[in-house]
Amino acid sequence: MTDTQNANASDQEDYRHCEEYFNDVSAPLAFDETISNVQLFIGKCAPNQRTVLITSGATMVPIEQNTVNYIDNFSTGARGAASAEYFLENGYQVIFLHRNTSIKPYERLIPSALKVLEVGSAACCFSTVKVKADQFVKVRGVLEQAAKYTPSLFLLPYESLGEYMWFLRGISIELQQILGSRAMIYSAGAVADFYVLQRDMPEHKLHSDVEPTIKLSLTPKMLLPLSNKWAPDCYVVSFKLETDPSILIDRAKKALMTYHHNMVVANILATRRKTVTLVESTGKVIQIDNPNQANDIELLIVKVLEERHGEYIKRS
Ligand code: PAZ
């Protein structure tokens, strides 16, 4: 077999694996209604405007059908939340597909000491945050920004890996159909590498008097159908997180060759707020440094991406 034939055979295998995943894991509650709402939101995109789907936060993997115990992975959601604000400032509509417990745009800028939960004492409210009336002046700027951009921001929470996957596929297909190249998919979330198949999951809670056996299966690589079948005309950016700097750029290049998308933002866990490397499908590598962290590094990442996306739209 030639290299191309090998690649095609392995692609077919990956596509099959993805389909099997959706056969195994049921759709989130009210999935069709949510996608209809997303469709309406995307449809509001003005002719000269763009829309970005940002994925943000970790994914929860249940290990019991009636879930008490689960496996989680790492991500605070700070990258996604900050990026959402900068895309909005750059004129994008933003669909923010985020883990329900992770950091949210604008909300991240309000110190927790200023937040209250009682509606009665709130001076202003967006999303789930209410600010103490006597502290309002301190965060007026953030609240005004949030209010300004709320119509362009679609917040969509998920909890489990399954919900994440279903929404990712559903929204990507809509972006492709409605906007094509004017849409970007910015996949900053941290997706679990392993999950438990429905048939390998006990129905009830595991008990601590018997050592459990948990069978993990590999999570299918959704980037392949995402960039080749669901949203082939959209500008697709994935993220690569490593802890070993010596393998980072090679892994990013390998991802581009395997999934045929537009860009990988490569970062190291310990330094992810100070430095990232953008690796493009053209082979170009751009390092972004933000040593003093005077601004969010996402401001710089989004600036480059906005430019690249503009060039991509012109070429298409
Ligand atoms: O969410 P956060 O700000 O704490 O971290 C961001 C990040 C490291 C999850 C993101 O930059 C990233 O690399 N996402 C992809 C993770 C992965 O390779 O699975």
UniProtKB/TrEMBL annotation:
Gene3D superfamilies, alphabetized: CoaB-like
Source organism, top-level taxon: Eukaryota
InterPro entries membership: CoaB-like_sf, DNA/pantothenate-metab_flavo_C
Residues of the DNA/pantothenate metabolism flavoprotein C-terminal domain: 49-134, 182-291
SUPFAM superfamilies on file: CoaB-like (SSF102645)
Family: Belongs to the PPC synthetase family.
PANTHER family per the UniProt record, alphabetical: CORNICHON-RELATED (PTHR12290)
Full protein name: DNA/pantothenate metabolism flavoprotein C-terminal domain-containing protein
Organism (species): Orchesella dallaii
